[in-house]
Design a protein that fits this description.
Chain A is built from 17 helices and 19 strands. By secondary structure, chain A is of the alpha+beta class. Chain A starts with a helix and ends with a strand. The chains are: A alpha+beta, B mainly alpha. The interface between A and B is large, with 50 and 52 residues.
């Protein structure tokens, strides 16, 4: 077992090195239009109000952010508009030096004033402006611009995730002049400094961008342009990829679609795979009996064999890894040796299930029956739901699978109109501040659907947030995880697995654990 | 006739009003909220304040009466509002899809009529011969096979035979006829086959019925050529139910090709319908339902007028 795992790790590492070396070795060619599929469509054009990959994929190439992730070295960050930056020893001052000669697509220069206007719009939006990630910047006390190339952020409190925040793909830098004219300008207009200019959005059909000749990174982008085609039907997307009508779809494919494309196209395509910053989470409505009893929640948690589930489900669904609250493989996530010590994560499932039955007896719960709320999206919700129901049946619990359409699912989950639900936790980046938010008290988190209050978790959350020492933060995160999983309010079941299939002629694109990252397309080129 | 026409047109108003009230109330009775869906379907952490601001922006914080009043007063001045999802005018969203849906409906109707009338007539004239059996098998197969499934077979057939699929984006026929037809001929065939099957069955049965009528016997007794008996006397009278079926099918195709449009990735009204219902985009769904209802009423009205043209005995007062 250990040997086969070792072989797998070495193979993946070699494949990664080969891909990276291959990408470096080849000289990018200029020209061509990249056609790619997007399975949904952005509702409007404002990055600061957007939450979907359907927005990022077509819109991100028009914009820059202050920092961005260095994809081959993820989660390391690098400058996007920033040339360099420093952080004061107390962690309260961030100073950024911008790259020279940055221009907006209308030819106007981009300076520190634009960065300031952008972050002020995010942190303190004007009346009627929607800023979804306002809370992430609540620690900003002031933004100063001593000269056109320098911007200084002063914080009220230390925030270990601040550099990650500055690399957020949602924080598109807007023109201060345009925002002054109309703070809602970005809702209906696209004006950025990114590698591609906006050409056309045909509603329901496609989105077109063309090369920005005055882009500040000389020689980039390599492509003449791109065309994002909206294809909502999964089979139609796979067919389009197989026929070469599109070269890639950046969100992800199921194992079955990957195998179908591999069989049809052989070495004409490349497959990249990665753990995904998305987990499926069983959430108990703690305001409903008997789920207000920790023994019942623990029993249902112990009945789940995460390890067997991961092995079986990864063959048919886009899930693979067993993990805690943070993505397996992330530097701050629990290692397997720590994970197996958490309640419900042990490898002896028979012992766990015997304990589960005892706990139900102690709680006085006989012949437990409940409705399990799940999303009506087949991949991966349905197979994971079926898997959970089967495992709960092993301890004598009867479960009815309820899969309403998405809007009813969300309404029920948010409204507390459910017994036990399969929730999800998807984020753009690996960041404890984001991933832990689902587990802190409901009064402090709008995505805690378990409807519980736990001051200990809130305290641990705040302490890890302000802890700049990585080792100490790691320890605090383990403490948080141990407590959250012992209370079993919400249990991460299994983490998603991202599979991207693309035609070989597309080069310069790196896989990341997030379908929201690395989508500015500035390094992508076509070998044709 | 003129009075009848005016009466029918006036009757459309209360019918559409009834549809408007019904769709408005039914939509709001459905669980779910466009604001929650928009910001939270991918797990975003959005504060209750942001959700409240967005609801107010969309007018969802007003009472149902006010929302209905706003919508109705808008309709009377030709303003159907803006999509709650995209913020674009509803009329623009529909207009950009209507052209494609209309073209597919027209192409499928032409295909269906061209196939159904001769086949249905031949089947009736050669009743219980091998020709009749063959045509009936063709028609029954058309009824049994769902259009979207046939569409999937067409796509897979093209993909595996020619490594080609129809274009994914729409170009109007007057801009690039080749691109346009190479995209739309396939869905028109998939839909037209089922449509032609319905019309073939109807043509066959009505012609068989008409051929038993006294006036046909009289025509034959007078020595009129069989071809004239069929084309002038039988077919014209047999067309009344066929025209009804063709009219209703045509109206259905506007907005009814929900799955077929997804299979071929057509940016039509059917796909828009599904997306807007899924998103609880009230203004869009309301406008789409009104459009389809108006279309059905109009097509029925045209069919009624055609009755008078086809059968001189029918007079409307």
């Amino acid at each position: 077992m250990i040997r086969s795992k070792l072989v797998l790790i070495v193979t993946v590492a070699l494949a990664f090195c080969w891909t990276a070396a291959d990408a470096i070795a080849q000289t990018p060619k200029k020209g061509g239009i990249l056609k790619f599929a997007v399975s949904a469509e952005p509702p409007d054009y404002d990055c600061h109000a957007a939450t979907s990959f359907a927005f990022i994929h077509p819109v991100r190439p028009h914009y820059n952010t202050l920092l961005k992730f260095d994809e081959p070295n993820y989660p390391k960050v690098k400058g996007d508009l920033a040339q360099s930056w420093t952080v004061s020893p107390d962690g309260l001052t961030y100073t950024f030096k911008l790259k020279p000669n940055i221009k907006f697509h209308d030819g106007s220069p981009a300076t520190s004033a634009d960065v300031k206007a952008t972050y002020e719009r995010i942190a303190n939006p004007a009346q009627g402006v929607r800023s979804i990630r306002k809370a992430a910047y609540s620690d900003i006390a002031s933004i100063e611009t001593p000269d056109p190339q320098t911007v200084i952020f002063k914080l009220k409190a230390r925030n270990a995730s601040m550099l990650t925040n500055f690399a957020s793909p949602w924080d598109c830098i807007y023109s201060a002049a345009k925002l002054k004219e109309d703070p809602k300008f970005p809702e209906k207009n696209v004006l950025g400094t990114g590698p591609f200019k906006f050409v056309e959005h045909a509603a329901g059909s496609h989105w077109v961008g063309e090369r920005f000749a005055d882009y500040h990174e000389k020689g980039k982008p390599y492509l003449d342009g791109y065309r994002a085609i909206f294809i909502t039907n999964t089979a139609a997307r796979v067919n389009a990829l197989q026929a070469g009508e599109v070269l890639v779809e950046f969100r992800g494919h199921s194992p079955a679609d990957r195998d179908k494309l591999k069989a049809a196209l052989g070495d004409k395509i490349v497959v990249q795979e990665s753990p995904w910053i998305c987990s499926l989470v069983v959430t108990f409505n703690t305001q409903k009996k008997p789920f207000d009893d920790v023994r019942v929640r623990r029993a249902l948690s112990l009945a789940i064999d995460h390890w067997q589930g991961a092995e079986a489900l990864s063959r048919i669904a886009l899930v693979r890894s067993v993990g805690g609250i943070l993505r397996p493989g992330y530097e701050l996530a629990a290692k397997e040796s720590e994970l197996v010590k958490y309640p419900g994560y042990g490898k002896d499932v028979n012992a766990a299930r015997a304990e589960a039955k005892k706990l139900l007896d102690q709680a006085g719960v006989k012949e437990l029956k409940f409705k399990f709320l799940n999303r009506n999206i087949p991949m991966p919700y349905t197979p994971v739901g079926v898997f959970l129901i089967d495992h709960w049946r092993q301890i004598g619990v009867q479960v009815e699978h309820d899969q309403p359409e998405t809007k009813a699912y969300i309404a029920n989950l948010r409204g507390g109109n459910y017994d036990v639900g399969l929730d999800f936790n998807c984020d753009a980046v690996d960041d404890p501040n984001l991933q832990l938010a689902k587990y802190i008290s409901a009064s402090k988190s709008s995505i805690n659907y378990g409807r519980y209050e736990d001051p200990k978790l809130d305290d641990l959350y705040n302490r890890q947030k302000g802890e700049l020492d990585q080792k100490k933060r790691y320890a605090l995160l383990r403490e948080f995880e141990q407590h959250a999983l012992t209370q079993a309010y919400s249990i991460p079941v299994i983490w998603w697995h991202r599979i991207i299939v693309y035609w070989k002629q597309m080069k310069g694109w790196y896989m990341s654990p997030s379908h929201y990252l690395n989508q500015d397309l500035q390094d992508v080129w076509l070998d044709q | 006739m003129l009075r009848y026409t005016i009466n029918r047109i006036l009757l459309m108003i209360p019918t559409l009003l009834g549809v408007a009230v019904l769709v408005f109330l039914l939509l709001r009775a459905m669980p779910g909220d466009i604001v929650e869906l928009r910001f939270m379907m991918e797990g975003g952490q959005v504060s209750p304040e942001t959700l409240a601001i967005e609801r107010a922006r969309l007018g969802l914080d007003k009472s149902l009466w006010w929302q209905f009043y706003d919508w109705m007063t808008g309709i009377f001045v030709g303003d159907f509002g803006t999509s709650m999802w995209t913020g674009r005018p509803v009329i623009d969203e529909i207009a950009s899809r209507l052209q494609l849906s209309l073209q597919v409906a027209i192409m499928a109707t032409i295909l269906a009529v061209v196939i159904a009338l001769p086949l249905g007539t031949i089947s009736a004239l050669y009743k219980d011969t091998w020709i009749d059996h063959l045509i009936r098998v063709f028609a029954i197969a058309g009824l049994a096979v769902p259009s979207f499934w046939l569409g999937m077979l067409i796509i897979l057939g093209l993909l595996y035979s020619f490594n080609w699929i129809p274009p994914l984006t729409f170009v109007p026929i007057y801009v690039d006829p080749w691109h346009n037809l190479s995209q739309l001929i396939w869905p028109a065939m998939a839909v037209g086959y089922r449509y032609s099957a319905v019309a073939t069955r109807m043509t066959r049965s009505t012609i068989l019925e008409v051929l038993q009528e006294d006036y046909i016997r009289t025509a034959r007794a007078k020595g009129v050529f069989e071809r004239l008996v069929v084309s002038r006397h039988a077919m014209r009278n047999a067309m009344l139910p066929v025209v009804t079926v063709v009219g209703l099918e045509f109206a259905f195709l506007i907005g009814g090709l929900v799955v077929t449009e997804q299979v071929f990735n057509l940016n039509g009204l059917g796909k828009l319908f599904v997306e807007t219902v899924t998103r609880a985009d009230y203004t869009m769904v309301q406008a789409l339902v009104m459009l389809v209802a108006a279309f059905f009423i109009f097509v029925n009205f045209v069919v009624d007028l055609l009755y008078a043209v086809l059968d001189p005995r029918i007079r409307y007062r």
